[in-house]
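Page 42, continued from yesterday. The earlier attempt failed because a stray header line got pasted into the input along with the sequence. Redoing it now with the clean sequence only.
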Amino acid sequence: MPIVQATSPNPSPPSHPGAPREDPRHALGRLGEQLAAAHLERLGCAILARNVRTRHGEIDLIAFDGHTKALVFVEVKTRRVRSCAGRVRPEQEPLPWLRPRQRARLRRLALAWLCETSGERPSGGSIRFDAVGVIVDGAWRLLHLDHVEGAW
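This time it went through. Structure tokens are written below.
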């Protein structure tokens, strides 16, 4: 199970003048998904869909890994920490919060999406479930990104 870690500064989440203020939790989740998608693209994956709604819930990201010819279903967990030193404590890590129930839900969501999009997607040799943990600081800058390929 390869783990990829990245750290770099990132601008604050996009906002439009005059737009209604977004719920901070949704803004944080959206920022984490944007950072995760950019990371996957840097690795050579093509993002096929974001925030896909099925009758069972929502899939954060769906990508196609051209290197391994795999369809990748990605669960993104994002945390915001207010640390002056930029250090992340173990209890602030987002990936340990990905529970078996959420993993089972993502498998159901993936199956529903595969059934609904049979002719509209690239055919992969395999399916993979990845987890991406994103940590941003109080100014919405990326502190840490963990990517676990084949998380389950």
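Notes: The chain has one domain: 3-10+24-148.
Reminder to self: strip header lines before submitting.
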